[in-house]
DNA sequence: CTGTTAGCGCTTTCAT
DNA sequence: ATGAAAGCGCTAACAG
């Protein structure tokens, strides 16, 4: 591997001159700059990032923290779409991304701790929001720059980007109400994440505003329990529509409905949040709220890199809009 | 941020002694080692990875190369399960992973090029296998250590780990034949990846061995085309079972069947490859071949790190077994 | 068992 | 416009 010295020697200049050429310093004559660049090509030289980082203290690397859990949680297409947005936008700004995950919260914390200590991650993006989160506290304690994708909770003025989940839930509920549904139930998974709380809130608001009786049910992400729960819910009342708090839960619900031979949309309508291919290719395709995960990721990177680089730009919008994608499940 | 010198000063030893304590060198008296460790704690000291890498030339970082494509390709749970396996096992061996992806092949190549040039990735894992792949050629040209998850093609004696896809396809086909199916069709997506070729081969072998007429159809991953294709295939013949080459295609197929009001498993059985939650929570749950993606990832890391660290251990098994997970779609 | 010394490859004053 | 020199934080001979 050729070093900056090799290039310097070949070009008959000092290493500092080569260094200046690399970062496009203007005070270098065109002729030498040209010559140096030729030599770099000739030797197939590329600057060693480690060495550069060591002196500049700029690794151009951001850490992404997923919530812990098993595969089916982390493989939520919603999260993956955010990841894609982050990745794409980071690349454009020549930032590298490394993601941290774990099965348990404790392990996740340890992992994040490790990557803080290695001191080459310049900032973090937190892919979830939850009150009293140990990982966020870690970030605060270590004064790491970070941005949350989700609702900002701590009073540390943290950077964040989010959807208006209450509004989105109101919209989706109203959409069904406008189709003359009256008995609409809301299914949500057990969890203390903020998103779900907001969606419940929005549903409640919309139902109450139309003087309809809301019914909310928390269920674990588990085939059997979901099935039993549905049997219970559907036998007593004349439920005509189900809203689920997230696509993964919705997927399980429609799988259970299929088993129960309750056909969608004939007997019951279903709709959910976080659109993705999972909804487009479900049986039948599902109506869902698109939360523009790509944009969430993009904006998160934007905020974080701006903050890291000191050029704080607070003019940008932190709330990403949403829209309902209508599909067969509610038609 | 405290450095090794600060620790050394506080402990009244030289930096080299601290360095030795860090890497657990045995030739350090217990008393000083203890004292040094105390000082590290006291100062909240953690070694700077960059500096360490610069001198040792060991970054303990491996690069993962996904195939290019849009989200629905990269979010294939099969790939993500491999990723999880890689990640988990890397962590255990305190390796870091960074993944490279892109929408197009050209961009992917450029990205990989960049990460080779940055010279801090010690080896790569290629998540696909394809003949005449430009990215693999790049790895070869730059003499990067790498392992392929999939069929080894180049004659460079590359490390690899794979399933016996032909065998798996034979098994799955036989499973259906044993259930007295005779008209079984095989649907595969357009693509030049090796996995699919092998699965087709296995299907063919099994059908021919039982003197049944095979029927293979390539289709693009596209809702409309799949639907039309199914209409065509199902009207002419008395097809009783469909095998798809991958879960994503299968998902689209069952969505189309739902639309066509052809119920599974009553009118037709379906089965596919690469098991995941997508099959477990499909409508109805799908029979699928589990290829143990976690183990594929795990073994890939094992081979790669062994190779990087010079302790070549060729005794380990490179072919990961498979098994059929039976679910409602074929019952 | 421990200290001294010389770098790893790069950037960055400070000169000129 | 360019070079010399110092040093980022760490490790690795070589001494002793």
Keyword list:
homodimer, 331 residues, alpha/beta, six-stranded parallel β-sheet, six-stranded mixed β-sheet, DNA-binding
Strand order of the largest sheet of chain A: 2-1-3-4-5-11
Note the total helix count of chain A: 14
Shape of chain A: elongated
Briefly note the structural class of the backbone of chain A: alpha/beta
- The proportion of strand residues of chain A reads 15-25%
Using a beta-carbon cutoff below 8 angstroms, give the protein chain pair with the largest interface and the number of residues from each chain.
Answer: A-B, 46 and 46 residues
The CA-CA distance between the termini of chain A, in Å, is 63 Å
The strand count of chain A comes to: 12
* Helical proportion of chain A, percent range: 40-55%
Describe the structure.
The structure is a homodimer of 331-residue chains. In chain A, strands 2-1-3-4-5-11 form a 6-stranded parallel sheet. In chain A, strands 7-6-8-9-10-12 form a 6-stranded mixed sheet, with helices on both faces. In chain A, 47% of the residues lie in helices and 16% in strands. The first copy, chain A, is built from 14 helices and 12 strands. In chain A, helix 12 links the parallel strand 8 and strand 9. Chain A is elongated, with a radius of gyration of 25 Å. Chain A starts with a helix and ends in a 6-residue tail after the last strand. Chain A is of the alpha/beta class and 331 residues long. The structure holds a DNA duplex (16 and 16 nucleotides).
